[in-house]
Specification:
InterPro entries: Cu_polyphenol_OxRdtase (IPR003730), Cu_polyphenol_OxRdtase_sf (IPR038371), Cytotoxic_necrot_fac-like_cat (IPR011324). By secondary structure, the protein is α+β, with helices and mostly antiparallel strands. It has seven helices and 15 strands. Strand 12 and strand 13 form a beta hairpin. Bound molecules: zinc ion (ZN).
């Protein structure tokens, strides 16, 4: 069953099983619908760095935080660079980047916090959002994994930082892999496929299928991340995987590849309510 579900509001999908199981947690992924942005950013663009009118992006971000029961001042994000940098939110980071891209947490693709009332957000238009939650320690996080971040092992990196910082065992961590470009639409060249083969070793045949011509492959980036998270010690039963393809579903999502780069961004979000 698809883990990301639309309820009454068209501008977001909820990670249904997590929100039901842990009522103080919110986690989900925004869509492109129901927002203020126009033209190629229509309409729920959450990215400030893509050339959209800032007021529209801020209105969308405010709506996303508030409709989930959080203050807009809690909206916290990073400047994503397709790397494997992970940052733990300090008190002074709360609210970083919400209204200006150059005020975001610098050069970071993974965010983690043990604080309630921090609305962690990261941005996507095909790349893979990874969600993390350790209910015992009440530690949560989100990581941006395109192919570069994936082969740079940002997923296992999140598990490692949770272990080092809070002494959380991998088997106590839950993970979810959100809507992103599917293997149906994600053709890559052998430069990318070679890196994926290095990352997953003998499981490469599970994630790379022949493409439309020699030297091209259809890459399953969701399964690549799932394999790496499982190798990092997360129990298979604790990993949820979306089947929604951002490139197939441009009615619902922005797709960088399908729309030739000129498009908006969805937000992956996760936050814990106090109490
Ligand atoms: Zn597709």
């Amino acid at each position: 069953m698809e883990p990301f579900i639309m309820r009454e509001r068209e501008f977001m999908l909820h990670l249904e099983s997590w929100e039901r199981r842990w009522p103080q947690l919110v986690a989900g992924f925004s869509t492109r619908k129901g927002g203020a942005s126009q033209n190629s950013f229509a309409s729920f663009n959450c990215g400030l760095h893509v050339g959209d009118t800032a007021e529209h992006v801020i209105e969308n971000r405010r709506k996303l935080a508030c409709e989930n029961g959080f203050s807009y001042t809690a909206f916290t994000c990073a400047d994503q660079v397709h790397g494997n940098g992970i940052h733990i939110i300090a008190e002074e980071d709360i609210g970083a980047g919400r209204a200006a891209h150059d005020e975001a947490i610098v050069e970071t693709d993974g965010l983690l916090t043990d604080k309630p009332n921090v609305f962690l957000a990261s941005f996507y238009a095909d790349c893979v959002p990874l969600f993390f939650y350790a209910p015992g320690a009440q530690v949560l996080g989100v990581a941006h994994a395109g192919w570069r971040g994936t082969v740079a092992r940002i997923g296992p990196g999140m598990v490692q930082v949770m272990k080092q910082t809070w002494n959380i065992a991998p088997e106590d961590i839950y993970a979810a892999i959100g809507p992103s470009i599917g293997s149906c639409c994600y053709e890559v060249n052998d430069m990318v496929s070679d890196r994926v083969k290095e990352a997953v070793g003998d499981k490469a045949s599970c994630v790379l299928k022949p493409g439309t011509e020699a030297g091209k492959y259809m890459l399953n980036l969701q399964e690549t991340n799932r394999i790496l998270l499982e190798e990092a010690g997360i129990l298979p039963a604790h990993i949820e995987v979306s089947h929604l393809c951002t490139s197939c579903r441009t009615d619902l999502f922005f797709s960088h590849r399908k729309e030739n780069g000129k498009t908006g961004r969805m937000a992956a979000f996760i936050a814990l309510k106090e109490g």
